[in-house]
Specification:
By secondary structure, the protein is α/β, with parallel strands linked by helices. The chain has helices at 13-22, 42-58, 75-86, 100-110, 122-128, 157-161, 198-208, 236-243, 256-265, 275-288, 307-316, 341-344, 348-356, 446-453, 490-497, 526-532; strands at residues 27-31, 37-41, 66-70, 90-93, 112-117, 137-140, 154-156, 178-184, 192-197, 221-224, 246-249, 270-273, 297-300, 320-326, 333-336, 365-370, 385-391, 413-421, 427-432, 436-439, 442-445, 459-469, 473-482, 509-512. It starts with 12 loop residues before the first helix and ends in a 9-residue tail after the last helix. The protein binds adenosine monophosphate.
Length: 541
């Protein structure tokens, strides 16, 4: 027997329709790429987003077609999101921190038909333009007066949407329709595409709104520093309009002074970013003896929150820190650290100890830790194993089937993180099984560094590992085993990498060893290597 209730498809266009109807005068404030602060409202934004839809339809873009963006957080970027998603196209956020060759590879793999970019990213496209195989049109997010010179054919965004109707119909398709695409290099091999559906994005939005998750409301002013191109800005471009929160978008500037200016002038109450951003802000506050009178909550994730950041926010500034863990594959929120009643009134050190853990799963997320044979391990806050996740907004595979079958017999996805769980579900990451380095919240592929390094004739074997860095959390150290009879220099090795990787991927140091430790199957034993270099300090630290 079926229930007798309305079938209201969970599609994201409804989020902005809701905001436009009920919170039409609530602002979205952006530090524009051109410099000035610009203001719009949900009421205005929806009309322009529908112009984007009309302009896309005009180009023959329809259900399932991929529309890519290479853009900072801004109201314009929001218009593109909703404009594409509203007509059933797939909005593909591309990470501009990648090397131009990787960007082209991803765009070709995704078969993007349109690429909408900020003026800041014109040089990236200049470098990759001959490699794009499927892009029919480049749109630059600016007006005709500010259009940059380009050697590829491009149209100004304002010109492109101008004259199009503001009432394009949205929705009306199945809630399982694909909605967003985001590639992650957080696993081995080529980047893999995570393909969100309307239903999972809406369910994730509902999950984020719970008080112990992000808990935002209509009276909040939210500054998502976390980029829309990396794991959906942790869902905030959906959660804010869903409740009518004011949004403050940082554009291209995420240094301490710029973020402080927005926090104070716009009276931001909730903000979210990776630890590196908060380190820059806290240094700026301390150097200039400034305060944070409006800020209530800061959500920190992407890598583990260092104790200094946690303590300074909580003790010196009276700001509630919510430590969050998640992945591109988990939409992305997986666990958050709002305190349980048993810890809420404890002394500050107990509360800090709790908050340094990665948090607990909200309703809609299930976790388990397993051993190498897949047996579930006890939730005793001690026993570590592979962290597995299942839930309402978790990937069940990758775009085009890459990576094969990724779920276990019980439908859990392997996160590649190593963690323990306490009886109340609080999760603590203790290691990483996947072979990547996370620097300032973004991935560096150790495998890419290694493959290029072993291409040098003086190198027998090479392995890249993440070493603790006070600002970036981790930075790469390249460990090299010279070829017999050879004595390569650090400069020779770094020259081998130059131009083949994004500049910020360059290892902070190169160490030479007689022998790189291998495991039973002949693969590099990274655990052992990390242990060998556990006391190593980078020259940049
Ligand atoms: P991404 O898909 O780029 O968002 O990266 C997800 C990965 O970042 C996770 O699998 C973890 O390895 C790491 N990560 C995210 N949040 C945290 C956190 N709070 N503590 C430690 N590692 C984290």
């Amino acid at each position: 027997m079926q229930g007798i209730m309305q079938n209201w498809p969970l599609t994201v266009d409804k989020v902005l329709e809701h905001a436009a109807q009920n919170h039409f005068d609530r602002e979205i404030v952006t530090r524009s790429v051109e410099g000035p602060i610009v203001r719009t409202t949900y009421g205005e934004l929806i009309g322009r987003a529908k112009q984007v839809s009309a302009a896309l339809l005009d180009l023959g873009i329809g259900m399932g077609d991929r529309v890519a963006t290479l853009a900072w957080n801004s109201a314009l970027h929001m218009e593109c999101w909703y404009g594409a998603m509203g007509i059933g196209a797939v909005l593909h956020t591309v990470n501009p921190r990648l090397h131009p060759d990787q960007i082209a590879w991803i765009a070709n793999h995704a078969e993007d038909r349109i690429l909408i970019l900020d003026t800041s990213f014109v040089p990236l496209i200049e470098a990759a333009k001959d490699k794009f195989e499927t892009i029919e049109k480049f749109v630059i997010l600016t007006d005709p007066e500010n259009m940059p010179e380009t050697s590829f054919e491009a149209v100004s965004y304002e010109l492109w949407i101008d004259g199009h109707r503001q009432d394009t119909a949205w929705g009306g398709f199945d809630e399982n329709t694909a909605c967003g695409l985001c590639y992650t290099s957080g696993t081995t091999g080529n980047p893999k595409g995570v393909l969100y559906s309307h239903r999972t994005n809406v369910l994730h939005t509902l999950i984020t709104l719970a008080p112990d998750v992000m808990g935002i409301g209509a009276r909040d002013v939210v500054l998502p520093v976390v980029p829309m191109f990396h794991a959906n800005a942790w869902g905030l471009a959906f959660s804010c309009p869903a409740v009518g929160a004011k949004m403050v978008m940082p554009g291209a500037q995420m240094d301490g002074a710029s973020i402080y200016q927005l926090l104070s002038e716009e009276k931001v109450t909730v903000t979210a970013a990776v630890p590196t951003v908060w380190l820059m802000l806290l240094n700026y506050l301390q150097e200039n003896k400034l305060d944070l009178p409006h800020l209530n909550k800061v959500i920190i994730g992407g890598s583990a929150v260092p104790e200094r950041i946690l303590r300074t926010f909580e003790v010196d500034y009276g700001v509630d820190v919510v430590h969050a863990w998640g992945m591109t594959e988990t939409s992305p929120l997986g666990t958050l650290g709002a305190l349980l009643p048993k810890d809420a009134d404890a002394d500050i050190d107990t509360r800090i100890t709790q908050k340094l853990k990665q948090g607990r799963p909200p309703f809609g997320v299930e976790l388990k830790v397993v051993d190498d044979e897949g047996n579930t391990l006890p939730r005793d806050a001690k026993t570590s194993g592979r962290l597995m996740i299942r839930g309402a907004a978790i990937a069940s595979g990758y775009f085009k089937g890459d990576g094969g079958d990724v779920l276990d017999d019980e439908g859990f996805f392997d996160t590649g993180d190593v963690a323990n769980l306490c009886p109340w579900g609080t999760m603590q990451i203790t290691d990483r099984a996947k072979d990547v380095i996370k620097s300032g919240g973004e991935w560096i592929s150790s495998i890419d560094l290694e493959n290029i390094a072993v291409g040098h004739p003086k190198v027998a074997n090479a392995a890249a590992i993440g070493i603790y860095h006070p600002k970036w959390d981790e930075r790469p150290l390249l460990v090299v085993q010279p070829a017999p009879g050879e004595t390569p220099t650090k400069e020779e090795i770094l020259a081998q990498l130059e131009g083949k990787i994004a500049k910020w991927w360059t290892p902070d140091d190169v160490a030479f060893v007689d022998e790189i430790p291998l495991g039973a199957t002949g693969k590099i034993n990274k655990m052992k290597l990390r242990d060998m270099f556990k006391d190593y300090t980078l020259p940049t630290a």
